[in-house]
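Progress against Task 2.4 (sequence-to-structure conversion) is shown through the following example record, which the project officer requested during the mid-term review.
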Amino acid sequence: MTRQVEVAWLGNLKVEARIGPHRLLVDEPLEGGGEDSGPTPSETLLAALGA
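Structure tokens generated for the chain above:
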């Protein structure tokens, strides 16, 4: 089974990944210049790896 993956820059440091019907926001914390609207890129990678 394959799903289309699209990534969109939402401004500042926020990115939305669209994987099939799912949406994932990735952002930096407030102290890092982001809006803290989602996990950081590093946290997202660690979650994906099951670490």
